[in-house]
C-alpha cells in the first residue's frame, strides 16, 4: 500500500485572484496562439458593445498602436469607480482583478450581453504585461494600471486621456471607458502581433449585427483607418455573404420575439451546392452553432417539406425531402438576443449555445413565419422547393454511380487503388498519406518513405476542377475516385469523417506554377466535397527545397530565394555548387526523405480556414467558369505574386 501520511493540506495549492488564468490560459481564452490573442481583443470590444446594446453608447473605437498594444474605447457610461464596501476597493479594481465579477449576473445593468460574464476583462488583464484603464465619469478621467493581473498604479484622477489618437474625440466631458493592453509574450509565445484583417472581419460582423452603431478601426502601424456603420443589420450581412453568387429569389426576413428571446433570421438561396449558415447570440459568432441553429434548421426543413406536400409538388412518392436537400445552396443568418443572466455557452470561448429552451422557441417562430411567407409568396416557395427536388435527383444519380463502383468492389476495403502504397500502421492518428504529383516523384517517395506510417498515392496530370460540379460527375473521375477510396470516408451521403484512414493528408507537388495549380485543384475538391478535413487540421502542404547547396562533401538545402541569399552571405566567398530543383522527380529517394518527408527535418504548412466565408468566395472566384471576377482578382493581387522566370 502507498503511504498516505505525506498527502496533507500542505500539498493543496489554492490559486488566488487571477493566478488560475496565467496557470491555464487556454482554459479561459481557448488557446494561446493567434486565435487566443485576438480573442482577448474581442472580449474588450464586446464589453464596449454591451454598452451600445444597452443603449448607452453609439461609438466603439479600436486602435492597434505602433508598439502593438491594443486600445478599445467607447462613449458609454464608464465602469463604476466608487468603493465597494464588501471589498473596500474601487469597483473598477474588483472587476479587473476578480473572476466572475461585473454587472451582467443579475440582469439589472445589462439585459443583453455578449461579454464573458465578468471573466473577459479580468482574463485579458491577467494575460497582459501592462493593462491600463481610463474611465470618464462626471467630467473626470479616472486612471488605473495593472500588470499580469495585479495593481500597478492605484486609481487616480488625471487631467486628460493618455491616448493621443482619442484626445480630441473623447474629452473628459464624454463619458465612457478606454482600455489599453499589452499581450504578455510569456503567454502568447507564437505571436503578440495583431492581424488587421482578423480585426476588420470581426468588427464588420459586429457592425452588421448591431445596426446604427459606429465602429472605428485605426491601425497606427500602417496608418490605415476603417469605419463601419450599417443600417440594414443582418440583411446587409446576407447581401455581403452572397456577394458574387447567383441568388435565385429575394431575401426572406423574419424578426419576432417570444419568451424573452428576440429572433432575427435572413434567408436567401443561391445556385451553388454549399450551405452557409452563420449564427450569432448577442452579437457573438457561435461558430459551432448550438440550439438556436438546430431550431432554425428543423423548422426550415419541416416548413418546406410540408408546403411541398400540401401543394402536391413531389410527383415521385419515392422522393423524400430531407434536411440536407433543403440546405444545399442555402445562405441564412441566424441572430438571437436574450437575457445575459440566462445564457449558457458550451466552452469559455462561447463557440456553441447550450440553452435547450431556445431550440423550440426559434423553431416555433421560424416555422410559423415561414409558413405565412410561403403562402403569400408562392413563387419563392416554388423556386426553393424546385431546387430541393433537383438536389434529390442529383443525390440519386450520385448514389447510382457509387453503387456501380461498389459493385466492382472499388469502395471495398480490400479494393484499395493499385497505385496506393499503403502504410503498415492501421491507427489513423499515426498515419499520413502523401498525394504526390506524377509517377516519377511517386516512385522516389515510395522508396524514400517510412513504411510504418507513410502512405503514397501518385496522381498523374491535373486533377478535375470540381468548383460548382455535381457529385455524380465527380465520382466519374478515376483520379478523384482513387483519392476517395484511399481516404476511406466515402463522399456525399455516405461521407463519414470518423472513417478517415490518415490523420495527415499531405499534398506534395512541384514548386512551380503547374504544381501550385494541381494543389489548388485538390484543395478545391477537399474544401467543397470532403467537409471537416480542413477545419479539423488534417490537410498539409509539403515544402520541398528550391536549392541544394554543396560545399565539398557538405550538403545544405534552402527553401526560398531569400534563404539562399542569406545562406551565401553567411558563408562568405566559399566555392559552392548550387542546384535549382525544378521538380520533385529530380530528387532521389534519400534526398526526398531528408528534405521533404522526414518528420525531424521537413517543413509542412497546415491548411487552415480562419474565415470560411472569405475562403468560399476566393475558391469561387478563382475556380469557377466566370472570367471577369477572376481577371479582376488577379489584377488586384498581381503585386503579391512571385514570378518564377
Summary tags:
Rossmann fold; 19 helices; 25 strands; alpha+beta; disordered C terminus; Ribosomal Protein S5, domain 2; flat; 4 domains; single chain; eight-stranded mixed β-sheet; disordered N terminus; five-stranded mixed β-sheet; Heat Shock Protein 90; 645 residues
Fraction of residues in H or I helices: 25-40%
Structural class: alpha+beta
Looking at the overall shape, the CATH architecture of the largest domain is: 2-Layer Sandwich
Q: Which superfamily, in CATH terms, is the homologous superfamily of the largest domain?
A: Histidine kinase-like ATPase, C-terminal domain
Q: Give average pLDDT, whole number.
A: 84
Net shape: flat
Domain tally: 4
Query: Distance between the terminal alpha carbons, to the nearest Å?
Result: 73 Å
Question: What profile does the largest beta sheet have?
Answer: 8 strands, mixed
CATH topology of the largest domain: Heat Shock Protein 90
Number of strands: 25
Instruction: Give unreliable regions as ranges.
Output: 1-15, 104-108, 408-414, 637-645
Question: How would you explain this protein's 3D organization?
Answer:
β6 and β7 (150-158) form a beta hairpin. With 645 residues, the chain is an alpha+beta fold. It has 4 domains: 19-228, 2-Layer Sandwich (Heat Shock Protein 90); 234-399, Ribosomal Protein S5, domain 2 (2-Layer Sandwich); 409-544 and 581-609, Rossmann fold (3-Layer(aba) Sandwich), CATH 3.40.50; 617-645, no CATH class. It contains 19 helices and 25 strands.
Amino acid at each position: 500500500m502507498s503511504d498516505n501520511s505525506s498527502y496533507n493540506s500542505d500539498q493543496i495549492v489554492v490559486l488566488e485572484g487571477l493566478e488560475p488564468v496565467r496557470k491555464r490560459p487556454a482554459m479561459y481564452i481557448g488557446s494561446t496562439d493567434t486565435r487566443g490573442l485576438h480573442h482577448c481583443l474581442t472580449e474588450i470590444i464586446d464589453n464596449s458593445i454591451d454598452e451600445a446594446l444597452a443603449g448607452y453608447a453609439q461609438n466603439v473605437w479600436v486602435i492597434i498602436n505602433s508598439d502593438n498594444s491594443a486600445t478599445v474605447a467607447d462613449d458609454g457610461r464608464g465602469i463604476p469607480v466608487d468603493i465597494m464596501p464588501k471589498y473596500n476597493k474601487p469597483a473598477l479594481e474588483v472587476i479587473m482583478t476578480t473572476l466572475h465579477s461585473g454587472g451582467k449576473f443579475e440582469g439589472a445593468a445589462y439585459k443583453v450581453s455578449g461579454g464573458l460574464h465578468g471573466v473577459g476583462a479580468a482574463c485579458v488583464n491577467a494575460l497582459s504585461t501592462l493593462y491600463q484603464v481610463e474611465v470618464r465619469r462626471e467630467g473626470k478621467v479616472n486612471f488605473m494600471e495593472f500588470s499580469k493581473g495585479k495593481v500597478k498604479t492605484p486609481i487616480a484622477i488625471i487631467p486628460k486621456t493618455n491616448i493621443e489618437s482619442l484626445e480630441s474625440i473623447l474629452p473628459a466631458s464624454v463619458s465612457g471607458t478606454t482600455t489599453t493592453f499589452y499581450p504578455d509574450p510569456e503567454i502568447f509565445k507564437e505571436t503578440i502581433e495583431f492581424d488587421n484583417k482578423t480585426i476588420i472581419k470581426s468588427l464588420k460582423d459586429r457592425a452588421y449585427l448591431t445596426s446604427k452603431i459606429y465602429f472605428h478601426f485605426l491601425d497606427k502601424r500602417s496608418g490605415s483607418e476603417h469605419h463601419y456603420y450599417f443600417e440594414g443589420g443582418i440583411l446587409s450581412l446576407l447581401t455581403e455573404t452572397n456577394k458574387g453568387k447567383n441568388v435565385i429569389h429575394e431575401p426572406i426576413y423574419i424578426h419576432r420575439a417570444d419568451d424573452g428571446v428576440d429572433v432575427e433570421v435572413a434567408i436567401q438561396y443561391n445556385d451553388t451546392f454549399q450551405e452557409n449558415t452563420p449564427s450569432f447570440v448577442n452579437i457573438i459568432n457561435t461558430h459551432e452553432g448550438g440550439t438556436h441553429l438546430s431550431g432554425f434548421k428543423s423548422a426550415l426543413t419541416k416548413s418546406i417539406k410540408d408546403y411541398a406536400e400540401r401543394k402536391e409538388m413531389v410527383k415521385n412518392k419515392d422522393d423524400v425531402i430531407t434536411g440536407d436537400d433543403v440546405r444545399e445552396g442555402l445562405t441564412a443568418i441566424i441572430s438571437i438576443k436574450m437575457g445575459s443572466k440566462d445564457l449558457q455557452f458550451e466552452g469559455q470561448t462561447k463557440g456553441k449555445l447550450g440553452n435547450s429552451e431556445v431550440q423550440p422557441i426559434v423553431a416555433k417562430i421560424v416555422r410559423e413565419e415561414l409558413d405565412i411567407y410561403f403562402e403569400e409568396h408562392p413563387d419563392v416557395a416554388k423556386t426553393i422547393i424546385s431546387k430541393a427536388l433537383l438536389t434529390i435527383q442529383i443525390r440519386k444519380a450520385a448514389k447510382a454511380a457509387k453503387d456501380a463502383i461498389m459493385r466492382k468492389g472499388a469502395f471495398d476495403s480490400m479494393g484499395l487503388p493499385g497505385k496506393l502504397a499503403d502504410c503498415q500502421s492501421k491507427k489513423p492518428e499515426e498515419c499520413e498519406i502523401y498525394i504526390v504529383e506524377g509517377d516519377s516523384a511517386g516512385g522516389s517517395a515510395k522508396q524514400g518513405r517510412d513504411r510504418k506510417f507513410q502512405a503514397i498515392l501518385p496522381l498523374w496530370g491535373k486533377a478535375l476542377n470540381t468548383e460548382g460540379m455535381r457529385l455524380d460527375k465527380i465520382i466519374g473521375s478515376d483520379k478523384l475516385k482513387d483519392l476517395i477510396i484511399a481516404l476511406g470516408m466515402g463522399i456525399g451521403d455516405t461521407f463519414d469523417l470518423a472513417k478517415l484512414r490518415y490523420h495527415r493528408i499531405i499534398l506534395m507537388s512541384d514548386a512551380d506554377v503547374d504544381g501550385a495549380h494541381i494543389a489548388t485543384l485538390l484543395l478545391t475538391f477537399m474544401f467543397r466535397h470532403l467537409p471537416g478535413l480542413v477545419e479539423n487540421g488534417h490537410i498539409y502542404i509539403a515544402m520541398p527545397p528550391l536549392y541544394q547547396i554543396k560545399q565539398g562533401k557538405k550538403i545544405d538545402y534552402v527553401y526560398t530565394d531569400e534563404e539562399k541569399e542569406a545562406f551565401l552571405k553567411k558563408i562568405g566567398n566559399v566555392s559552392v555548387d548550387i542546384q535549382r530543383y525544378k521538380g520533385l522527380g529530380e530528387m532521389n529517394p534519400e534526398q526526398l526523405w531528408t528534405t521533404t518527408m522526414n518528420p525531424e527535418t521537413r517543413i509542412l504548412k497546415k491548411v487552415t480556414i480562419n474565415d470560411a466565408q472569405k475562403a468560399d468566395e476566393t475558391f469561387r472566384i478563382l475556380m469557377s467558369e466566370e472570367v471577369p471576377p477572376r481577371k479582376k482578382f488577379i489584377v488586384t493581387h498581381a503585386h503579391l505574386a512571385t514570378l518564377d522566370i
